[in-house]
Design a protein that fits this description.
There is one protein chain. The chain has 13 helices and 2 strands, in the order αααααααααββαααα. The protein is mainly alpha-helical. It has one domain.
Amino acid sequence: MSTSTAPLRLPRVLYPDNTDVARALLSHYLTTFTGRGFESVGHPWNDPAHANKVTTADIVALSCLAVPVGGDAVMRLLVEDAGRVSALLADAPPPETNLWEVDEKAILDPEEALQSLWQLLRDIPGMGPTSASKLMARKRPRLVPIYDSVVAQALGMRSARGHWEMMHTLLLSEIDGETVHEHLSRLSEGVAGAELVTPLRAFDIVTWYAHSSAPGQVKRRQEAFEQAGLDDPVAAERAITAG
């Protein structure tokens, strides 16, 4: 498929003609990496009893994504700023809200709860854009996308500024007759362990796995393709980075 038919910033691995490759990576991630516990450790992200407060389980969930949270930040999140964090979560769109369903004001206006929460988290020493985005994604995984250096590179971004807006636009874009968010929703269908994986999280997992240059990742991807029964694992590796 020509790249001209796809949304400008959609990573190649998420094109419809790479669906088998993307599913192979998603499936392998959910059986291999500790990130498989991000949605469920302690309590599932969609447990209504914990929707509007940061819990110790949420802090542990960040460790599943290799994000350490220092003691000072823990005290701020669970004690000193806990009331303010809970109030902002209560004012934010509820957990079942999808990013593509809200208008941009809800995610971009500095007076709105999401931006206020983002700023509060970023003001906590040790909470950079990656830590803040992952904590917010644990609380609102249908609404807040995860940001890290690998995703940033795949999207052509130099910083977290504009990330939510870009993802909002991308999810509403169409490719081969369906929206990107519809395509992402289908990726998780039938994948073991993906019951709590949202479209945004599927985007994060597949993009990260496809673009990560960490030691051993090429070998792990080959294992993923072989376990999925893809005919040509080497071609699959080339396909995810093809221009």
